[in-house]
Amino acid sequence: MNSVIKTILNHRSIRKFEDKPLSDEQIKLIVQSAQAASTSSYIQAYSIIGVKDKEKKQKLAELAGGQNYVAENGHFFVFCADLHRHQLIADQYHQDASENLESTEKFMVTVIDAALAAQNAVLAAESMELGAVYIGGLRNQLSEVSSLLKTPSHVLPLFGIAVGYPAQEPDQKQRLPFEHVYHEDEYQQDQTSYLSQLKEYDQQISAYYEQRTNGERKDTWTGQMARLLSRPTRMYMKEFVEKKGFNKR
Amino acid sequence: MNSVIKTILNHRSIRKFEDKPLSDEQIKLIVQSAQAASTSSYIQAYSIIGVKDKEKKQKLAELAGGQNYVAENGHFFVFCADLHRHQLIADQYHQDASENLESTEKFMVTVIDAALAAQNAVLAAESMELGAVYIGGLRNQLSEVSSLLKTPSHVLPLFGIAVGYPAQEPDQKQRLPFEHVYHEDEYQQDQTSYLSQLKEYDQQISAYYEQRTNGERKDTWTGQMARLLSRPTRMYMKEFVEKKGFNKR
Q1: Is residue B227 part of a domain?
Q2: CB B161 within 8 A of CB B79
Q3: Which pLDDT score is estimated for B189?
Q4: Looking at the domain assignment, is residue B140 inside a domain?
Q5: Which segments constitute the Nitroreductase domain (chains A, B) (predicted)?
Q6: Which residue of A116, A183, A249 is the best one to mutate when testing the B interface, meaning the one whose CB has the most B CBs within 10 A?
Q7: Does residue B229 sit within a domain?
Q8: Which residues in chain B land under pLDDT 70?
Q9: What pLDDT is attached to residue A189?
């Protein structure tokens, strides 16, 4: 197994960091790694905001739901879908590009572009013995986050990534069975085998939690998902995304 | 520079492959690498369809706009946003999760989840001396692609990845200037410097094309973007995505 695959398979989210900032060289290498990812039709439809300011980080931590590792880390990156520069280009070329820029298709393009770049950033960080965790909690209160980061129209903060020197060694979380996620030639829709795969997975996850907590935590993956699904979250998103100029038509 | 960052920075999309299929071991390692990526709240909201069937690949190549490397490669992966298993879980737990599953927020979660996994897959492939290219063209005719791959409701094919043994060595495409993509503490909105960065980038890109084509191709990045923006594409997407159970509220 080569070192790239080793790094990939060794991933675990780090939520506790040493009090040691990343160097400018590390930040630059992480951003350059992000930029090296594929981009749809060369569109490069994202931006990255690196937050160093302590007060801003503290505020972001509160907005993200009180996760202290949003404030306490080596560096905090915010990945944004960004068609702002494309809007400027359209203006320069005297084009009305709004139909295009505001389409659901372009929304998907920007989100995918940003996510590909982000995963490169995370792997680059991990390869430098740093740890990282994605912060989807940034979407809890995106209007406040946007104001804080002063993002213009056609820019949408999607998630954060806290990066730093790891101060913990968490276990890995086991993924869904290969056969459940990977389909050959077409989507396998046999519900019986689908549900039995989930049952088997539940047993594995349940055994893992039991073992890790000395029998205290009784939980399954489908149980976690059922709880997650029972709480509609961030239902303001559709309206907010549209207000920012995305996903309107 | 470590080998992970070397692999990341060495990326270029490969569009011509040797006629040599990936082994099952290679496919499995690529999928396992994909699955090792972070996933929002452990939701694992994607599936991967690996297409081996030659007729299906040929059909996908036509649907994607006649790109022959969609058919001629070592393996063709289709990454799908997938909340189908979550719908089944909600049913099993006697929950009505439709508000949640159909939200724009969950649509973003699934697209980000799938893209993070995909980028791991691409890097894993590249680390094995394979080449890869994302196929956004799969979204040209997504209804036909969905039928061909028999994806159920709450499953949305997002893009393909053609992987294989490279039969070409393309140049790298230079990215936007670091300062243009990376903002410190807040989004830099000084339009003058923003536009001058784009102008400088245009000059670099223009010199690159001139040099590569012996002066034949005159082009800039903003010129390419202006052409891209002048053609609204895949405007059916909003309706189609909603029909599949995503992004409705």
Answers
A1: no
A2: yes
A3: 84
A4: yes
A5: 8-165
A6: A183
A7: no
A8: none
A9: 84
